[in-house]
Amino acid sequence: MKLGAQGTASQTVTFERMRRRHLPAVMRIEHKAHPKPWSLGVFNNELSQGASRYYVVVRTGGRVAGYGGLMFVADEAHVTNIAIAPSLRRQGLGTLLLAHLAHEGTRRGCVAMTLEVRVGNLGAQALYRNFGFVTAGTRRNYYPETGEDALVMWLYRLGSPEVQARLEELERGR
Ligand SMILES: CC(C)(COP(=O)(O)OP(=O)(O)OC[C@H]1O[C@@H](n2cnc3c(N)ncnc32)[C@H](O)[C@@H]1OP(=O)(O)O)[C@@H](O)C(=O)NCCC(=O)NCCS
């Protein structure tokens, strides 16, 4: 089942600014999502960075289903983390979450979004390509724990009518 931006009658999808009270649920997902999960200290530190960061949780069926965050550097929005609980993947939640982050970047006047992704993380790369992210390079040994390289991906012209139309399309589930 694919969820549109409004979810379904029984499964409304909502976004909430991430607060410390969300961190137990966030940490449970984080540990299942990444080979080298962020510590609680890293999340606390990110949440204390004020306007240079934007973290949200996505809720469905009354529970925290995932989360994501942006770091703003000049007029660029860097996706720092994004994850959906394993049992709730492939339902469109990651798409709605990334679209939400893209809207926030647009609202703040960013002209591009960027992120690093493991070369082996083909699922996430497919998600990003759906949005129009393109690969701009590779960072060798970016993940020292596994020695894996990172692809650097960019979504350019964030505020353009084309990108905004694509976001709307993705949010409608097409
Ligand atoms: C990446 C992640 C956030 C995607 O969340 P999600 O809710 O499953 O994403 P969606 O359901 O919106 O997927 C949208 C599309 O992305 C692509 N996609 C997502 N996961 C995929 C996978 N595992 N394999 C192949 N394609 C995938 C598909 O095109 C999918 O559309 P489809 O289901 O109609 O085929 C989720 O898999 C996750 O939390 N992974 C672990 C953490 C992680 O890797 N984060 C990214 C670090 S850079």
Topology:
Elements: E1 13-17, H1 23-33, H2 40-47, E2 53-60, E3 63-73, E4 76-84, H3 93-107, E5 112-118, H4 122-131, E6 134-143, E7 148-156, H5 161-171
Parallel strand pairs: 4-5
Antiparallel strand pairs: 1-2, 2-3, 3-4, 5-7, 6-7
Bound molecules: coenzyme A.
Q: How many domains is the backbone divided into?
A: 1
CATH homologous superfamily annotation: Gcn5-related N-acetyltransferase (GNAT)
Task: For the largest sheet, list the strands in their spatial order.
Answer: 1-2-3-4-5-7-6
What is the averaged pLDDT score?
94
CATH architecture annotation: 3-Layer(aba) Sandwich
Radius of gyration: 15 Å
**Helicity level, as a percent range?**
25-40%
Describe the fold and architecture.
With about 170 residues, this protein is α+β, with helices and mostly antiparallel strands. The chain has one domain (about 15-170): 3-Layer(aba) Sandwich (Aminopeptidase). Helix content is about 30%, strand content about 35%. It contains five helices and seven strands, in the order βααβββαβαββα. The chain has helices at about 25-35, 40-45, 95-105, 120-130, 160-170; strands at about 15, 55-60, 65-75, 75-85, 110-120, 135-145, 150-155. It has a seven-stranded mixed β-sheet with strand order 1-2-3-4-5-7-6, sandwiched between helices. Strand 3 (about 65-75) and strand 4 form a beta hairpin. Helix 3 runs antiparallel to helix 5 (about 160-170). The two termini are about 15 Å apart. The mean pLDDT is about 95. Bound molecules: coenzyme A (COA). Coenzyme A binds near residues 34 and 115.
